[in-house]
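TL;DR need structure tokens for one chain.
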Amino acid sequence: MKKIGSVTKLIRYPIKSMQGEEINTSIITKKGLLGDRAYALIDTKTNKIVSAKNPKKWSNIFKYNSKFITEPSQKNMTDVQIIFPNNSIISSSEKNIDALLSSSFNRNVKLTSTVPREVQLEEYYADIQEMEQPNAVEDATMVNGTFFDLGTIHLLTSSTIAKLKELYPEGDFNINRFRPNIFIDLDVTTIEFIENDWVGKEIAIGNEVILKVKQPCPRCVMTTLEQKNIVKDTNILKTAIKNNNGNIGVYADVVRTGTINNNDIIQIIS
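>> reply
TL;DR here they are.
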């Protein structure tokens, strides 16, 4: 095995499309980081998952933050705390949670940890020339039995962020734009989309976990949206499309479960 770097950030998102929480350690299950995308909001009118992929409908969902009140276990997915844009705080266990969320979003929604039999969301293609279907909205199907879009763990490296900054120096490439689960600081100061070379390979994290890199991560309008301390910028997505087929980072599946920690060593196996 070849050491290539180490974990510098672990991030999970208890409620899909809301802001998440940085953690120091995580159990890795077959469904990724324990507690990641454990909950989602459902639009009761369409029965589709609420997602920032359609900002025309859910323009302010990035202004909500979610985090677990107590650490979840594999047997018990604990309650989450939701911080609203006005800084009010509620628990997912409150009886009127759906009414409060519906009032805040001005749309009827319900919070659930149960994945519907047919789970879909609406994806908006940004109105920029580089998109294949600019200004279109279409349905997207998620990974079976989960609230994940294409893969269970999203990896991103310092090399890719450096490359994006080189290509578009004026851009703010805060990693929160890309919502990775694991951010990797590489040992070498390579400036390239290095994760592309990992597709099909296995990587080890720490002493237990093994992941297999599944595919590049195709980016969408979410990367361009305003977040806390991050400005709206469509050139972020344009840069990815022009220079790396719209991909930033990679998705990986879990080969061997276990526990990972910040500062764990990352090694390429094959």
